[in-house]
Amino acid sequence: MNRRFFLKTSASVLAASLLSQQAYAKKDLLVKYGGSAWLAHYPAYLAMTEGLLAKHQLSQDYQSFGTSSARMSALISGNIDIASTGAVSALALMARGVKHFSIIAIPESFGKVEGIVARPGITSIEQLKGKKIGVTFASSSQLLVLDILAQHGMTPDDVILLNVPAPELPSALKSGQIDASATWTPYFEHTLKQEGATLLADDTQFKLYQSHNVPPGPDVLVVRNSFAKKYPEQLKAYLSAYFEANTLLRETPEKVAEKLSKLTNLSVEEQLSILKGTDWFSLPQQKELLTGKYAEGVQLLADLLVQHKQIDKSPNVKEWIDTSFI
């Protein structure tokens, strides 16, 4: 065989093989996502179940975590690639100087799906003095409690704060083990449904919500930096699919409510109420959210966490924000 022809043919075969391998790798790139039944994970869940990721030649391993802190631990250890997380857990890691992740998007803003619910007979914040409040420590709900108490001239010493995992709060309130519960959806709705329960405050009363539309635990979409560096184009594609799902949540909530009920175990009516009570942001909004007033609010949130002794120091949040994928 002519040596030049052999080399040319071999090179062509090798090039075709490499292209085939690259296409195969792209088609089968599995994104490991950290989620739960909380509303911030609806876009990732729908992007997966509605085939939006598949259109971008991506697939997703949807892993559930009970808390944002557990989710962030999995992210920085490399067990997951992308996650939506309450900003409180992210800020706690920032305060320690952890640089393994970046904030790449803001999925939504909520105000009425997290709050303080009291048992029958308690109808005001002032009546909580000396009472037991169940709340998951180091969470957005704990910050809400601290802020609401301060607004009413009270301190944590005026109440008994008990650290209770969010899934256990509805039963703890119902059985009388606690006098009030502070938690988020879907457990928030489960406490509200209890006979005689009273809503004392929700996130719309949080001071940064009133000034910056930022709740006590704003959700941020984060990525492990090593994953972003290795797969920048796939990450952009992931965000495209993610915000296509946000469009469904914003524009056609009736069509997706039943599908999401399989994730949350809420009734379709409850699910629809949550969808309509949430501001689902779009991809074109992201640049402004990540660099404007909303980001300023997240920085003020970090300062507030220091004030309430939840973290030791306030990080410079913008050092963790990366807008290059939008």
TrEMBL record:
Pfam family, any one: NMT1
GO molecular function annotation: ATPase-coupled transmembrane transporter activity
Subcellular location: Periplasm
Signal peptide: 1-25
Keywords: Signal, Transport
Primary residence: periplasm
Annotated ranges, domain SsuA/THI5-like: 40-255
Keyword DNA repair in annotation: no
InterPro entries: ABC_SsuA_sub-bd, SsuA/THI5
GO CC list: membrane; periplasmic space
PANTHER family given in the database record: ALIPHATIC SULFONATES-BINDING PROTEIN-RELATED, TAURINE-BINDING PERIPLASMIC PROTEIN
Family indicated by similarity: Belongs to the bacterial solute-binding protein SsuA/TauA family.
Protein's name according to its UniProt entry: Aliphatic sulfonate ABC transporter substrate-binding protein
Species assigned in the record: Pelistega europaea
